[in-house]
Amino acid sequence: MISRPFLVIVAGMRSLLPVTLLLAGCGAEPAARPTRPGYVVVPPLTDARARARPTREAPAPRATRAPRQAAPREAAAPAVSAEGASEVGQATWYGEELQGRRTASGEPFDLNLLTAAHKSLPFGTRVRVTHLKSGQSVEVRINDRNGGREVIDLSKAAAAKIGLVREGRAQVRLDVL
Question: Which helix (H) or strand (E) covers residue 21, if one does?
Answer without folding.
Answer: helix 4-26
